[in-house]
Write a structure and sequence with these properties.
Oye-like; TIM Barrel; globular; 8-stranded parallel beta barrel; binds flavin mononucleotide
């Protein structure tokens, strides 16, 4: 099934097509391509088709692209994750940097803007995998996650990752923070328009934030405030090395280790989480949810993005389920139908609940999703094979 929007619906979409200023950047509209790993980077070098893949989305009206997760310059940044990922890109060394520069140039040539997403898998990386199999995986307290979380990870993966490993040492922590800085500097050199820090989904930064994976009792753990310290140091280092590029910080309640996990249970808790991150230098929060329009806490209809904006006063991106009727984890095995919920996103922007809206799978399904939305044409369904690695239309 596909969905066509009549003209009354189109006028209700108008807030999505208003410009947005982010520092010195003016985005032509509020639609952001969400970061999506494609596993096409042999030896860490993005594949030949990657430039045209991003260029097509820019040509077809995406306001801002956030790149797929790019491994930071650290031996344990990348490896096999919960879904068996491989061929993940990096942004250090002559070839990867040159290829990313060519990609950025193509996006700019099409009038687009692109931020680099900086990624360290932390505890999610299966030990003994990735470009440097001997490097120990980075875990704040040696823990992968809970023993019985709601996860899509395979039994084989779980058997490998659940073993307790040594906690990160002070020097290991310092090394990783420095790696973020080097990669941010390379992103700047490659011409990226901004830096997006992946602080969500149970990966390294999130594993410091999360009380299940961070049970340290030194300066990096204990209270929620102390658990934000690692994220804050990364934000400061990325800001410093990025030389003025805008910094987006992605966080989430849900984790790959447990879709039902929560970092905080109340708006007051969220405020304690956000305050130090904002002080460290975040320009935009990316509140990653699987369904952007759902209430974040009992007793209010406000979404996670809405609370984030309300509490931090900073610009916020909402994401999750735009244009599709089922959430991310449902599409791992089954096809998902198109839905016309972009109107809810437009209303959220109009009412000041959030500023930007991320679109993931719908933009994999069709490079011209924005054009189709805008003209009222049929919107595409999402085939689960696209998630699993079927090459997308470039
Ligand atoms: C194939 C695929 C790869 C993804 N890779 C990343 C990633 O590299 N970094 C990240 O932060 N999120 C990643 N995500 C999550 C998306 O950014 C987005 O938050 C999620 O898909 C929800 O948006 P959607 O419902 O519009 O797809 C990925 C999602 C998909 C479908």
């Amino acid at each position: 099934m596909t969905v066509a929007l009549g003209s009354p619906s189109l006028s209700r979409l108008q807030p999505l097509f208003t410009a947005f200023r982010l520092g010195s950047l003016v985005l032509p509209n509020r639609i952001v391509m969400a970061p999506m790993t494609r596993c096409s980077a042999v030896d860490g070098v993005p594949g030949e088709g990657v430039a045209s893949y991003y260029r097509q989305r820019a040509e077809n009206g995406v306001g801002l692209i956030i790149s797929e997760g790019i491994g930071v310059d650290h031996a344990a940044a990348l490896g096999t994750g919960t879904l068996g990922e491989s061929n993940l890109p990096v942004l250090h060394g002559a070839k990867p940097v040159a290829r990313w520069k060519a990609i950025v140039d193509q996006v700019h040539g099409a009038g687009g803007r692109i931020f680099a997403q900086l990624w360290h898998q932390g505890p999610v990386r299966m030990p003994g995998t990735g470009p440097h199999p001997d490097a120990p995986s980075c875990r704040p307290s040696g823990r992968w996650g809970p023993l019985a979380g709601n996860t899509s990870a395979t039994a084989q993966y779980l058997a490998e990752v659940r073993r307790q490993t040594p906690a990160m040492s002070e020097s290991a922590i310092a090394d990783v923070i420095a790696a973020y800085g080097r990669t941010a500097a390379n992103a700047r050199a490659a011409g990226f328009d901004g830096l997006a820090i992946h602080g969500a989904h149970g990966y390294l930064i999130d594993s410091f934030l999360w009380g299940v994976t961070n049970v340290r009792n030194d300066a990096w753990g204990g209270s929620l405030r102390a658990r934000t310290r690692f994220a804050c140091e990364v934000i400061k280092e990325v800001r410093r090395a990025g030389g003025g590029l805008p910094v987006v910080f992605r966080f989430s309640q849900w984790k790959l280790q447990d879709y039902d996990a929560r970092l905080v249970d109340t708006p007051a808790g969220l405020e304690h989480l956000l305050e130090p991150l904002a002080e460290a230098g975040v320009d935009v929060f990316d509140a990653s949810t699987r369904q952007f329009h759902l209430p974040a806490f009992a007793g209010s209809q406000r979404t996670l993005a809405g609370w984030t904006r309300h509490l931090s006063g900073l610009p916020v991106m909402a994401v999750g389920g735009v244009g599709l009727d089922r959430e991310l984890k449902d599409s791992l095995l089954e096809d998902v139908l198109a839905a016309d919920n972009a109107q809810i996103a437009a209303r959220g922007i109009e009412q000041g609940e959030f500023d930007l809206i991320g679109v993931g799978r719908a933009l994999l399904a069709d490079p011209d999703w924005v054009g189709k939305l805008r003209s009222g044409a049929l919107l595409p369904d999402f085939r689960s094979s696209l998630f699993a690695g079927e090459p997308v239309q470039p």
